[in-house]
Design goal:
The chain has 4 helices and 5 strands; from the N terminus they run E-H-E-H-E-H-E-E-H. With 106 residues, it is α/β, with parallel strands linked by helices. It has a single domain (6-105), classed as Glutaredoxin, CATH 3.40.30.10. The termini are far apart.
């Protein structure tokens, strides 16, 4: 179970985005690569917790958010800065790749 990444609704995501940097993992329970990315994301979130809020949004339960941000494939990690998407990483990536992506975009 993720300790550093909390699951939020689309509405909660919008509130968080308005208040500072957010890293959001758009995922679904049936998605194998999403399940592989979850522990990697949790580990990196623990290491970078001082730089952003780390959350995940289930695309099946929050279809409006998935549509709003053009989520066509998952997992899709989006960095939100200044209230808008700033960068995204699509698909499963190993920890060094994910951490470098986030450090470069936060």
């Amino acid at each position: 179970m993720a300790k550093n990444v909390r699951e939020v609704t689309g509405a909660e995501l919008e509130e968080l985005i308005a208040n500072g940097p957010v890293v959001c993992d758009f995922w679904a329970s049936w998605c194998g690569p999403c399940r592989m990315l979850a522990p990697v994301m949790d580990e990196v979130a623990g290491e970078l917790a001082d730089k952003a809020t780390f959350v995940k949004v289930n695309v099946d339960e929050n279809e409006a958010s998935a549509r709003k941000y053009g989520i066509m494939s998952i997992p899709n990690v989006i960095v939100f800065k200044n209230g808008a998407p700033a960068a995204n990483q699509l698909g499963y990536v190993p920890k060094p790749t994910l951490k470098a992506f986030l450090e470069n975009n936060l």
